[in-house]
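Workshop exercise sheet. Pairs work together: one partner reads the sequence aloud, the other fills in the structure field after running the prediction. Swap roles for the next sheet.
Pair: D.N. / O.F.
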Amino acid sequence: MSILGGGPNGSRSSRGDGQLVRTGLSDSGSILCSMQVPNTATVPGLSFPAGLTPETVAPDGQPILHADADAFFASVEARDRPELLDVPFVVIAGLGEVVACPNYPARAYGIHGGMTLHQARRRCAELVTVPARAEPYRQASEELFALFARYAVAIEPGSMEEAFLDVGDRDPVDVGSRLRREVRAEIGLPLSVGVGRTKLVAKLASRRAKPDGLVVIAGDAEQQLRDELRIADVWGVGQVTRERLCDLGIHTVRDLDGLELPELAAVVGLAMARRLVSIAMGTDDAAVQAPKPGRLISGERTVTPTSRSATRVAEVLTAATDSAVERLDSRGQLASRLEVVVRYDDQQSVATRLALPVATDDADQIHRLALELLGRTGFSEDGRGVQRVGVVLTLYRGRQPYLDQPALF
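Structure field:
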């Protein structure tokens, strides 16, 4: 029942009430922990019972890790250009008018991904701009996932710099510590790791661990987290949905108590209603779904500038789908599964997936289904700007291009 965090120099101070939790890594990668906390270790929106040793924090059941390279594009640039390390700078995308990734000194000025360069410079006049370089990011991503594979029995990518990891029977804190140390030593990048019983909890933990930290949420602390978790902090819940829930007097997960599923679904849709109920009950997704090696083809494009326009986002997705379909055709293979991913300007992502009833390489069908899945993400009603969209095709490996019943997740 504890949260542990490690900062960039091996330490982390919690926020609120002057209380402190400090952890770090020894040379061997073990957790070092000293607590100066009279009653609780505090994170925004939640207080955790404190006073437990690191040995007591292993999550109940099968642990899940969420590993996320901090400010990925910016960290690669700072690694390759050390003179940028303490300078506020942004990696710019597209025609150079949109912030793709700010480093942490730039974030201290309130600069974030998806912001126009003009807006960013109004907040920081001395801001340095660095053009995006695709190849170094791709190489760093491959090296990062190779390190994940050293310890994980299953890896579910979230993007090129983050993934959920199933580490089997290994100690999750030990694995997280080793990963952080080895990613820093071998790739030269900071990595934050969250550990929890479900994907949501693990991702909330990694978010709290940033930058360059390790946080574990376990035991009774998880239930307290669920009860007191603000809807605004639930991964994947957009602004419009939050506003609708606010109109019902729902501000935290605990506020869902007593609300019937049909009533909730009438406000936020059935899929979101089921997800929120599962979060409240602690039955949300806890399975790391690893794609089989070599079975994915993807296409991704940046929306420049960040947009809420359904027409504009659909145009960009079409371009991303074109790229994936061209690669599918060049390999002479069929797609059996389709996924569309939308990343918002607050760096949160939402995805919709469809298993195809018949494996196909038909470009028109794939385009049509991709646009249909895009609509099912609810992005046009979310309220946030869309920064990036992508499509992922899972390759068919069977003898006959027919699958079982289609499934939409």
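Discussion prompt: The domain at 296-395 is CATH 3.30.1490.100 (Dna Ligase; domain 1). What would you look at next?
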